[in-house]
């Protein structure tokens, strides 16, 4: 399959989509990861940023307090792999104390078996686990060495810990795991989990394979024929780009689809990203962003607000095609947070 890349458009300050300001922030707690998914990062380990360049717990707290003052109400912690950060529980505790409307994490779950209970106790509300296959050999191949048994133990621990919601993310790759969609849905539904399927995007290492590996949403839905009601799908209010279709059996169970490649959703985007070295980024699909000043890192409210305003003013216009833009290729998912 050959999907033509759209022509690069410069991010323009001229035509802005009307959005009040950021409501949702994704923080990349660390650029480190213990897996190397084929569509995300190169095989080689290392090349991480020096530890002293990463934001400290106090700085994360200060930045998030400043963002809260500016109207941000939902926080998702991601990475790299956020559960590798030695202070992840303390970060969760401090962000939870800011009384956000939502506090969630996206994790590969390699360490979730031990951390699910403590994370819940620290104030984490929701968990999304990335799981691309239920076959251990396949899982190890996609993640370049990931241990499916550890991930399944992490999912079980999350379910026992009483989170408000547990979801899964599966990046669907043609000829690799695209025959597993019904099995993944049944497995998830049996456990009260909401499964989500993601179109592979040309971000980072995905730039090498997305044209051949992309399975468009319509094809995913065809593969789930009989399990789902037909329709356009609905978004959860204030909850990011996934559109959900409901189970055909009337049980109310759902499957989410994230269409970063065939139907980009830039127009209504109210997301902001903060990277582990303290850069505010308005869009996943470019490396553009604004470094948080030293004053901002101490939580000086005006400094955080000024950085937010500057980053927000860099939001692309309505013609932007998100992760299909050629700038996406150069983005590191680890530093940025997927
Ligand atoms: N390590 C954590 C994890 O595995 O969930 C959090 C970071 S990871 C970058 C966040 C999400 O981005 C994962 O669900 C991953 O599958 C997704 N992702 C990474 N690269 C992608 C790509 N090129 N296309 C689509 N999704 C991608």
What does this entry show, briefly?
With 338 residues, the chain is an alpha/beta fold. Helices cover 30% and strands 16% of the residues.
Topology:
Layout: E1 24-28, H1 57-69, E2 74-78, H2 88-96, E3 102-107, H3 112-122, E4 126-130, H4 136-143, H5 148-160, E5 165-172, H6 181-190, E6 194-199, H7 206-213, H8 217-223, E7 234-235, E8 243-246, E9 254-258, E10 271-274, E11 279-281, E12 290-291, H9 294-297, H10 301-313, H11 333-336
Parallel strand pairs: 1-2, 1-10, 2-3, 3-4, 4-5, 5-6, 6-9
Antiparallel strand pairs: 7-8, 8-9, 10-11, 11-12
Helix pairs in contact: 1-2, 1-10, 2-3, 3-5
Q: Give the overall form.
A: globular
Biggest sheet character:
12 strands, mixed
The CATH superfamily is Aldolase class I
Structural class: alpha/beta
Number of strands: 12
Give an overview in words:
It contains eleven helices and twelve strands. With 338 residues, it is α/β, with parallel strands linked by helices. Helix 3 (112-122) runs parallel beside helix 5. Mean pLDDT is 88; it is low at 1-18. It has helices at 57-69, 88-96, 112-122, 136-143, 148-160, 181-190, 206-213, 217-223, 294-297, 301-313, 333-336; strands spanning 24-28, 74-78, 102-107, 126-130, 165-172, 194-199, 234-235, 243-246, 254-258, 271-274, 279-281, 290-291. The chain has a twelve-stranded mixed β-sheet with strand order 7-8-9-6-5-4-3-2-1-10-11-12. It has a single domain (4-336), classed as Aldolase class I (TIM Barrel). Helix content is 30%, strand content 16%. Bound molecules: S-adenosylmethionine. Residues 33, 39-40, 78-79, 81, 106-108, 130, 169, 171, 198, 200-201, 203-204, 206, 333, 338 line the site of S-adenosylmethionine. S-adenosylmethionine is lined by residues 33, 39-40, 78-79, 81, 106-108, 130, 169, 171, 198, 200-201, 203-204, 206, 333, 338.
């Amino acid at each position: 399959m050959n999907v033509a890349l759209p022509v690069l458009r410069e991010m323009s300050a001229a035509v802005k989509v009307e959005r009040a300001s950021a409501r949702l922030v994704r923080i990349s707690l660390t650029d480190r990861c213990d897996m190397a998914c084929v569509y995300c990062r190169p095989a080689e380990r290392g090349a991480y940023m020096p530890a002293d360049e990463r934001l400290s717990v106090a700085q994360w707290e200060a930045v998030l307090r400043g963002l809260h003052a500016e109207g941000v109400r939902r926080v998702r912690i991601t990475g790299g792999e956020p559960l590798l950060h030695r202070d992840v529980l303390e970060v969760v505790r401090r962000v939870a104390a800011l009384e956000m409307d939502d506090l969630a994490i996206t994790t590969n779950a390699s360490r979730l078996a031990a951390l699910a209970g403590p994370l819940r106790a620290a104030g984490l509300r929701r968990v999304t686990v990335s799981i691309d296959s239920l076959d251990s050999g396949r899982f190890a191949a996609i993640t370049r060495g990931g241990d499916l048994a550890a991930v399944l133990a992490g999912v079980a621990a999350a379910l026992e810990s009483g989170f408000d919601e547990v979801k899964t993310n599966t990046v669907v790759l043609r000829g690799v795991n695209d025959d597993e969609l019904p099995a993944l849905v049944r497995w998830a539904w049996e456990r009260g989990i909401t499964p989500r399927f993601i179109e592979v995007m040309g971000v980072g290492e995905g730039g090498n394979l997305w044209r051949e590996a992309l399975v468009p949403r319509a094809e995913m839905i065809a593969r789930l024929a009989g399990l789902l009601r037909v329709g356009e799908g609905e978004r959860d209010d204030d909850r990011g780009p996934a559109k959900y279709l409901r189970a055909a059996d009337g049980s109310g169970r759902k499957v989410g689809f994230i269409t970063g490649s065939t139907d980009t959703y830039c127009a209504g985007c109210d997301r902001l990203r903060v990277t582990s070295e303290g850069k505010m980024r308005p869009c996943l699909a470019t490396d553009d962003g604004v470094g948080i000043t030293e004053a901002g890192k101490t939580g000086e409210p005006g400094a955080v607000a000024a950085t937010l305003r500057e980053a927000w003013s860099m939001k692309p216009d309505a013609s932007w095609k998100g992760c299909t833009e050629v700038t996406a290729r150069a983005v590191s998912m680890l530093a940025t947070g997927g």
